[in-house]
Amino acid sequence: MFVMIDIHAHILPGLDDGPATMADALQMARMAVEDGIRTIIATPHCLNGIFNNYREGVMSACSEFNLILEKEHIPLEVLPGSEVHLGLEILDDLESDRLMTLNDTGRYFFLELPDQFIPRTLVGFIARLEKMNVTPIIAHPERNMAIQRNTTLLEDLISAGALSQITAGSLTGGFGTPALRCCLRIIELNLVHFMASDAHSPGMRPPVLSKAVDKLSALTGRTEAERMVLEGPMMVIEGREPGT
């Protein structure tokens, strides 16, 4: 079985709109392992107006969950991270070390955009982050309505220094036709760097990647598809520069 890394999943119980109970979180962990996933970056929501999961709390919850996984003999490693909604607080929270970057390297974090538009100031914001040696990974751009209408918007963000992550469920049709069409288009334009599950539950949005990897392989070739769920994620986990 091909081993994969899922860098975007809401699996820590009780922190956001992911699993409400430990039982559901453990079921998700077992599903991930069965699918071939051996490492997950837990990405609870932050700064989205409802949930504010900062570094200290995420680190603690992640450590506790890994102890339970070990006790339950589930061969899955869960690393700390977050999905941060776009806001001016990001810069201050990065400087004060409150923001939970992916695997706590200080190098990458998931940036969640508004659903319906792209702020005009976003390119400049990304440039400011780059001066801090921090790279935002645009979470599920194919589900943003503005990018669905005009993929040049995503190209501009990537040109400014951002990376992007598509959702496995978008590629398999789970988020509707507009998201699927946009997903196919940005893959064609080489605007995608990672694919992840964005899992939230064992039922509606499970932590599985293999079916989408097979579909991605038909579009990009198997080597590139596997890179998006293994080598690329490993670069993020280790905090390395793109291409190293």
Characterise the protein shown here.
With 244 residues, the chain is of the alpha/beta class. The protein has one domain: Metal-dependent hydrolases (TIM Barrel). The protein has 11 helices and 9 strands. A 6-stranded parallel beta sheet has the order 3-5-6-7-8-9, with helices on both faces. It has a 3-stranded parallel beta sheet with strand order 1-2-4. Strand 1, helix 1 and strand 2 form a beta-alpha-beta unit. Helix 9 packs across helix 10. The longest helix is centred in the first third of the chain and has 17 residues. The radius of gyration is 17 Å and the shape is globular. The two termini are 26 Å apart.
Low confidence ranges: none
The helix fraction, in percent, is 40-55%
User: Please, what is the CATH homologous superfamily?
Assistant: Metal-dependent hydrolases
The helix/strand class is alpha/beta
Structural domain tally: 1
The number of strands is: 9
